[in-house]
Amino acid sequence: MKNIPVILLGCGGVGRHLLQHIVSCRSLHAKLGVRLRVVGISDSKSLLLASDLFTRELEDTFLNEVSRVKLGGSSLKTLSSFVNECQIFTNLEVTRTVIDVATRLSKSTGLVVIDCSASSETMGVLNRVVDLGCCVVLANKKPLTAEMVTNSISQLGPSYSMFGLWVKACFDSMQEDYDKLVVHPRHIRYESTVGAGLPVIASLNRILSSGDPIHRIVACLSGTLGYVMSEVEGGKPFSQVVKDAKNLGYTEPDPRDDLSGMDVARKIESLYPKEMGPNMMSLEDFLSCGLLLLDNDIQERVQKASLEGKVLRYVCVIDGPRTEVGLRELPKDSPLGRLRGSNNSLAIYSRCYNEQPLVIEGAGAGNDTTAAGVLADILDIQDLFA
Question: With 80 as the cut, is the pLDDT of residue 269 above it?
């Protein structure tokens, strides 16, 4: 039986469902000769760690209690009564402790650190963990987008203000961290950062590793925006649909992460103006006031497309060096126009898949689906453990 120690960073929607999957799949994993030993769980304020990393783990009854507490929106600190079950670390202790655990376990059992947070601040921990020879599995996209942000900053040109120079220095550091992280491909998995549980990255890697060059991709890869657009077509206000998507677990903790996209020095369309950005407006004000101001514009665009027999979809087109991301009017009966709810679709054109593209389609959002993809990624690296 392979015993694989894991630490979970972030136990919001996806992390909570992952813990439930780990517990419910015990008998299945036993048949596969694998046991996932959850030795640590953290949220934004604290870390719970098994009392003995080598002989103990957080029991399944405790994991279920964690899920219950986090579903209610409480902090892990509220589980301090379980002092015999675990050790509790807070704030600045968390990062140091995770690295310490990785240092100790890397010399014996190994370790998988799972990032289900929505934070860009986990990059330093993840890099150190991988440098120590441990493994990383990501549902969190942000550690992988440092290169894209850096490219955006580079488009500012040579005339930086002092603040601009400071920002560039910060993002240059992020680029260095990104490079360090992805240099260990055998020890990192990130399938669930795109398309939830769909095999998007694995399929792309298989095509490329076979020597088949990909020259075009057309996709709807935001399950959140797919759900939003199809619900608005049904007559619901945009503001209400976004809030519904957040309650269903389709969006990031801040829905603007889904509504904005990210500028990679290419054309990209945000669904809200700059003055509603995270640096200009609080999340609470955006949800209560900002969204309402977007209703009329989105509804007008939906109605205009409908009059022409079309629908709005948030589409990504990669055509050679050109990339465009934004709302497009598509025929209702087209493959992307027929998408409903949170479904994603990806059409890959290559030498072998030229006239008939390889199409990957299915549920592309949701905590349960994403957590299942994370679990599959963990099992995918089991061969690295004795």
Answer: no
pLDDT of residue 270: 79
Please report the DSSP string for 264-317 in residue order: SSSEE--SS-GGGSTTTS-HHHIIIIIGGGGHHHHHHHHHHHHHTTEEEEEEEE
Whether the full predicted model's pTM is greater than 0.90, yes or no, is no
* Residue 274 is a catalytic residue: no
**Rounded to whole angstroms, how far apart are CA atoms 330 and 378?**
38
Contacts of residue 181, Cβ cutoff 8 Å, sequence gap at least 6: 123, 126, 127, 130, 136, 143, 144, 188
d(CA 354, CA 179): 32
d(CA 145, CA 142): 5
CA 60 – CA 18 distance, rounded (Å):
12
Q: What is the dihedral of CA 101, 106, 112, 115, to 10 degrees?
A: 50
Distance between CA atoms of 4 and 55, rounded to whole angstroms?
A: 12
Backbone angles phi, psi at 247, to 5 degrees: -65, -30
Contact between 169 and 357 (Cβ < 8 Å)? no
Q: Per the residue annotation, which of 45, 267, 274, 332 is the catalytic one? A: 267
